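Input.
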Amino acid sequence: MRLAVVSSDGENVDLHLGKGNTIYVYDWDGKLTFRERREIEISKDSKHQGGKVIKACSDCDVLISVQYGFKSKIKAEDAGIKLVMDEGPVCEVLKRYIDHVRFMEN
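Output.
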């Protein structure tokens, strides 16, 4: 499973999806592996930019941010990406999500 988090510093999930100018991508196949940092050109003054972030995550299964809007939810569903709202240290956010997936599988 490929997971992406929206983060200003790589250490904290701390941005709204539409303001996510940096995402960090991880793979999880029983162990978590950092893959890459992706830069996205986001205008600080524009609204509704979640589509840019979703497009940049087209190879991801899950995209985690502090918050997202209704339009982004629809775009993500169309792209086959699950949006998740959470915030805090990246390692804790990813652990919570993985723990939830494991729980739901059992």
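Residues 58 and 79 are 7 Å apart (CA to CA).
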